[in-house]
Amino acid sequence: MGRITSRRRVTRITVGQDPQHREDVLAVEEPLEIRVGGNALAITMRTPGHDFDLAAGFLVSEGVISRGEHFGAARYCAGATVDGENTYNVLDVTLASGVPAPDPSLERNFYTTSSCGLCGKASIDAVRTLSVYPVADDPLQVDAALLATFPDLLRARQDVFEKTGGLHAAALFDGRTGEMLVLREDVGRHNAVDKVVGWALTNNLLPLRGTVLMVSGRASFELTQKASMAGIPILAAVSAPSSLAVELAAEIGLTVVGFLRGPSMVVYAGDQRIRSHAGDPGGEIVSGVSGVSEKVTVS
């Protein structure tokens, strides 16, 4: 796993039993500074791996770019050590010719933690970024029985979580076939989603019409925002959504499903997209992304 995991000697204590000393596996958390054209934009705490996807997805979420051709290149540059060693924790993105640089107001004089991708924003209004991919008119409908299979598929592919128990995951599913298109893990749920969106961007798949974004934790405002920016019509989570996430979803026509566990789920917004059984009347189930998927592995 390289820098994705690390080992540490720990002591396991069980009341009434002798302490046990052994090695344990931890999920790595390191800072990543994202620069655009040499100018610092943000620092996020993340699990190393798929950093280019993370940077690309972050730029989509911030409204800087919206198509694959907008993303020119990315490279690691010298880290912050005195001797100039490359720590692989500083990434500089070059935008394609003619793509405007990020608005200076986007530059964050703070870092985003692994638990919150929006901490430090001046106000909630500042993150209501207008998406170029409206989702309200996406006619996707998904059978509840198919949707109910996604959490187990997600969990089965969480390779690093299996070893550490310490990572979130986000996966993108074709809403018609149920095929998992891509999965990413990270200590930050927002980073995992950015990695998924970045993968889609670099494969020229935006907007992600007809797809479902499945996340391993709760559905926060920021995840709803990121789904909107990528044109994803359905956000599903194994845990609860926040009130602001539901308010935003209802406002923009995005479907939010929470507590997706076993055969049950709660639809908080956009229930017209979830068919409770195969015999329900409704519109045509529209195919999602087709022809492009990847072998879902964590490297």
Mean pLDDT: 83
Cross-sheet strand order for the largest sheet: 10-9-11-12-13-14
Count of DSSP E strands? 15
Distance between the termini: 6 Å
Main sheet characteristics: 6 strands, mixed
Instruction: Provide the succession of SSEs.
Output: EEEEHEEEEHHHEEHEHEHEEE
Structural category = alpha/beta
CATH domain class name of the largest domain: Alpha Beta
Number of helices: 7
Number of domains: 2
* CATH architectural arrangement of the largest domain: 3-Layer(aba) Sandwich
The CATH superfamily of the largest domain is: Cytidine Deaminase, domain 2
In one word, what is the shape? flat
Radius of gyration (CA) equals 20 Å
Proportion of residues in helical segments: 10-25%
Q: What percentage of the residues does DSSP assign to strands (E)? A: 25-35%
CATH topology of the largest domain: Cytidine Deaminase, domain 2
Low-confidence stretches: 119-124, 278-288
Considering the chains and any ligands shown, give keywords for the structure:
5-stranded mixed β-sheet, Ubiquitin-like (UB roll), 20% helix, 299 residues, 2 domains, Cytidine Deaminase, domain 2, 6-stranded mixed β-sheet, alpha/beta
Question: How are the secondary structure elements laid out?
Answer:
Blueprint: E1 5-12, E2 20-27, E3 30-36, E4 39-46, H1 51-61, E5 71-76, E6 90-95, E7 111-112, E8 142-143, H2 144-147, H3 150-156, H4 159-164, E9 168-174, E10 180-186, H5 189-202, E11 211-215, H6 221-229, E12 234-237, H7 243-252, E13 255-261, E14 264-269, E15 274-275
Parallel strand pairs: 3-6, 4-7, 8-15, 11-12, 12-13
Antiparallel strand pairs: 1-2, 3-4, 5-6, 9-10, 9-11, 13-14
